[in-house]
């Protein structure tokens, strides 16, 4: 099976791009938008529509394999690739990548994906959104060739056993963290609510009091709305606001997390991104120090890495640096 043609089509992503630096600094809600000036390069306003490029591989036996090039909400922040705007990257696909793929034999996924991941154009690796979408299309093509699902392709090529039990779902509330938490509880979501705690004044509180109040409310709602055997994990993404509020004092942050842990009981607590040190090396150091402080006071809260942990190499560095209990991918 060969690739006969590569078609790339601009579209919208499922969500929006947000300028994280502006939101953490000064932005205010204005309906679904934000007021204020953007900070991160590429943003015309603090919130803009997310964009995508759908990649279609036309195969010689008539079928089409699909992949979607998309980027994360906080593009351009914390070591991530620059803002992904479709018009900037369509020419790269059409002029640089497509000629390399036409007439290629569809082999196995792993080799073709690694080749694309390591491809450099003008001395630079491809934007992560391009690598994500194009390798997705390759995976779809291999699954069509073998007449199996994409999950089975991954299982076979990487030696991963397919899990028969459902994988726990982690749901995100967005800013409507009260109503959406209720919806999650009613459906029995295993890990909730994310919370989108990305601003000290509006969402955390200068002393952390707003988040403490929210967590107390959440625990009560689980009891009120959940089934008797419902035992969710509370996972809060705080975007480095603990460091902002408590001047990156790890001992103080650890004590605050311990207070949150007590409020959460009997439910297990996870905190994602408690600090943002401004660099990968600084983040690993700060997160390791915080985990050490938490262990000293007997905390069972898990600390999750997200900011500055973007690539496979980053993940290995965070794990080897003992900087996280879990990685957000």
TrEMBL record:
GO terms for molecular function: metal ion binding; methylaspartate ammonia-lyase activity. Residues 1-159 form the Methylaspartate ammonia-lyase N-terminal domain. Its cofactor is Mg(2+). The keyword Hydrolase does not apply. Residues 162-329 form the Methylaspartate ammonia-lyase C-terminal domain. Keywords: Lyase, Magnesium, Metal-binding. Pathway: Amino-acid degradation; L-glutamate degradation via mesaconate pathway; acetate and pyruvate from L-glutamate: step 2/4. Its EC number is 4.3.1.2. One of its GO terms (biological process) is L-glutamate catabolic process via L-citramalate. It is an enzyme of class 4 (lyase). It catalyses: (2S,3S)-3-methyl-L-aspartate = mesaconate + NH4(+). It holds the Pfam family MAAL_C. Homodimer. Belongs to the methylaspartate ammonia-lyase family. This is methylaspartate ammonia-lyase. It comes from marine sediment metagenome.
């Amino acid at each position: 099976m060969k690739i006969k043609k590569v078609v790339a089509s601009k579209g919208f992503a499922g969500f929006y791009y947000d300028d994280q630096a502006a939101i953490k600094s000064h932005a205010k809600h204005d309906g679904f938008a934000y007021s204020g000036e953007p900070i991160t390069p590429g943003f015309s306003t603090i919130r803009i529509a997310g964009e995508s490029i759908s990649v279609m591989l036309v195969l010689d036996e008539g079928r089409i394999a699909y992949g979607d090039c998309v980027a994360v909400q906080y593009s351009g922040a914390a070591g991530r690739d620059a803002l992904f705007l479709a018009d900037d990257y369509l020419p790269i696909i059409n002029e640089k990548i497509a000629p390399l793929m036409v007439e290629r034999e569809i082999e196995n996924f792993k080799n073709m994906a690694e080749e694309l991941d390591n491809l450099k154009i003008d001395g630079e690796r491809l934007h992560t959104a391009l690598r994500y979408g194009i390798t997705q299309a390759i995976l779809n093509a291999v699954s069509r060739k073998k007449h199996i699902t994409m999950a089975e392709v991954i299982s076979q090529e990487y030696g991963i056993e397919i899990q028969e039990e459902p994988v726990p779902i982690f749901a995100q509330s967005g800013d409507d963290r009260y109503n959406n938490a209720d919806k999650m509880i009613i459906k029995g979501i295993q890990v909730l609510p994310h919370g989108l705690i990305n601003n000290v004044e509006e969402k955390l509180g200068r002393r952390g009091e707003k988040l403490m109040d929210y967590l107390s409310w959440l625990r009560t709602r689980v009891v009120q709305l959940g089934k008797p055997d419902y035992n969710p994990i509370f996972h809060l993404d705080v975007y480095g606001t603990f460091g902002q509020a408590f001047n990156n004092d790890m001992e103080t942050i650890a004590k605050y997390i311990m207070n949150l842990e007590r409020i959460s009981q009997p439910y297990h607590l996870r905190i994602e991104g408690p600090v943002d040190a401004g660099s990968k090396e600084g983040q690993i150091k700060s997160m390791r120090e915080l985990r050490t402080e938490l262990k000293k006071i007997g905390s069972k809260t898990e600390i999750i890495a997200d900011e500055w942990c973007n690539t496979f190499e980053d993940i290995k560095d965070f794990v080897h640096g003992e900087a996280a209990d879990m990685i957000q991918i």
